[in-house]
Amino acid sequence: MAGKEELQIFCYIIWCLWGAHNKLIFENKLQTPGDVLETVNCALANLSLASLSLPKVPPSTAEDKRWEPPEIGCLKLNIATVSNGVNSTGFGLVI
To answer: Is the pLDDT of residue 6 over 90?
Structure first.
C-alpha cells in the first residue's frame, strides 16, 4: 500500500498530465514528459514549503461552527473533508 508521500506524487502526476492535456487541446501547446515532471517537482516543492509554514491547528468539530445561509443573490460553497489518518480520505462539497 502506498504511503502519504507516494499518494501525493501520484495525484500531482495525474493533475499535471491533465493540465498538459488541456494545454494541448485548448492552447495547442505540446508539453514533453520532462516538462510535466518539472511541473510535478515544482508543485511538490511548493507543497513542502507551504507545509513548513502552516501552524498546527486542531481539527474542528461540528459543534464549533454552524452553517449560515448565504446572503440573497450570493452562492455559498461548503466543503468538508475526512480522514481516518491511515489510508482513507474523502471530501465533499455543496453549492
So the answer is: no
